[in-house]
Specification:
- This protein is an all-alpha fold.
- Helices cover about 85% and strands about 0% of the residues.
Length: about 180
């Protein structure tokens, strides 16, 4: 079965890669730009003066827009995973490709749990706009909890993502072992 699938997909390896690589960058940079240029400056300003209602409104507005903007990332991620599996099969890779096994381990151990939590925080019960508009009466206590949980998520995952991206790119380009 695997060999048949590999023979079928092998001629399309380059085309699959033409999907995989742009979606990898789309997944990464769709969030990086919003995080670095909007969330971080607004949170820094708000933390300096959290009693300023204007800064609180700006913080809430930016977080809600960010929740909407990560939809691009959350569409790119499954495409990235699917195209990665197809590349694995089409390339005939296996356990003999140590660099790829390490790359896949890093991706699975770091991104799958992180993205699962991120989907929940951004679109499900942790969605700030939903909490603000819920039943016509905002639940500001839950809103603040969700917002701070999301911020802590960023503080924890940002260094991991930076290290993961550098490692994965290094392994993908150099194929050291």
């Amino acid at each position: 079965m695997y060999e048949t699938l590999q023979q079928f997909l092998a001629p399309y390896y380059f085309y699959i890669k033409l999907v995989h690589v742009p979606f990898a960058f789309l997944w990464l940079f769709s969030v990086v730009m919003g995080y670095a240029h909007y969330l971080v400056p607004v949170m820094q300003a708000w933390r300096r003066d959290s009693s300023d209602p204007g800064l609180t409104l700006m913080r809430n507005w930016v977080f809600e827009r960010f929740d909407e903007g990560v939809s691009v990332e959350h569409i790119a991620y499954p495409v990235l995973l699917l195209s990665g599996v197809l590349l694995f099969i089409a390339g005939g890779w296996g356990p003999h490709a140590g660099w790829l096994m390490l790359k896949l381990a890093i991706v699975i151990v770091v991104t799958v749990p992180m993205e699962t939590i991120d989907y929940y925080i951004s679109h499900l019960n942790g969605n700030k706009r939903y909490l603000r508009d819920k039943d016509g009466e905002p639940d500001w206590e839950r809103y603040e909890q969700a917002l701070h949980r999301h911020w802590w998520f960023f503080l924890v995952t940002t260094p991991m993502i930076g290290l993961m991206v550098v490692s994965v790119l290094y392994l993908a380009f150099t194929k050291p072992f």
